[in-house]
Amino acid sequence: MAILGGAAFWAATPDEAERGFSMALDRGVNHLDIAPQYGAAEELIGPLVPAVRDRIFLACKTLRNNPDGVRAQLEHSLELFGTDHFDLYQLHGVTGLDVLDERVDAAEAILAARDEGLVRHVGITGHDLGAPAAHLEALRRWDLDSVMFPVCPRVWAEPRYRADAAALLNHAARHDVAVMAIKAVARRPWPGAPRPKSSWYEPADTTDGIQRGVDFVLSTPGVCGFCTPGDLSLLPAVLDAADAVGPMDDVGRESAIREMADEPIIFPLVDNAVR
């Protein structure tokens, strides 16, 4: 399942945002993942949501630590989208155990919002190589409904990451936790400026490369969906790949990993996520 990644609307014009959002809905996408941190995305997409609110699963996030700040941002996002609840609200950007420890009060605030009915489900997201281990620890601490972390051939080439991801996926399967993937079509860090795409990493941009990434992520046991990349120009091709997805067996997965293993990795985030 393709999830519309709201980062693609970071610097879009209103017309571009409306066209991209409408196209995704017309192509059958019914899950929007968006955040206050995605530039102008909330302001652009928020006014478009009320007319289709009954058709979409609306997911939002927060990077804040302070409970009062979390609550204020949640309420502001609800107002921007003209809705009285989010289907999913996520503790965003948890990239390691150190970050998780800093976000304890924020997690409690989000869980309290679930008890109030302001959010229906609570999740955790994170880029970087420490995300799977941190997310597994979060699932042990709290009753969370979902995780979202990088799944792609290049990160699977890292033995420690692959082992941590396997442990997280196994735990999620045993405890009925939804698993969503990001960075399905990530290729490498940008070599420099200018950047012809708006995503912070260089994505695959050939039909075969995009299909390989989508097939890989959706053949990963336990993954129920993937976020489309942060570039509107890639959205049609990525949705085409999702429509054409085929099973990738173990031999195919290992081949995809080997093909990407020598590429420079897009992490750590702090060094490469420059817009």
The total count of strands amounts to 10
Radius of gyration: 18 Å
Tell me the CATH topology: TIM Barrel
Tell me the fraction of residues in β-strands, as a range. 15-25%
What does the overall shape look like? globular
Task: Describe the main β-sheet briefly.
Answer: 8 strands, parallel, barrel
Give me the number of helical elements. Answer: 12
Overall pLDDT confidence: 96
Count of discrete structural domains: 1
Strand and helix order: EHEHEHEHHEHEHHEEEHEHHH
Task: Give, in spatial order, the strands making up the sheet with the most strands.
Answer: 1-2-3-4-5-6-7-10
Characterization of this structure:
- The chain has 12 helices and 10 strands.
- The protein has 275 residues and is α/β, with parallel strands linked by helices.
- The protein has one domain: NADP-dependent oxidoreductase domain (TIM Barrel).
- The protein has an 8-stranded parallel β-barrel, surrounded by 6 helices. A two-stranded antiparallel sheet has the order 8-9.
- Helix 2 (41-45) links the parallel strand 2 and strand 3 (57-62).
- The relative contact order is 0.13.
- The model has no long low-confidence stretch (mean pLDDT 96).
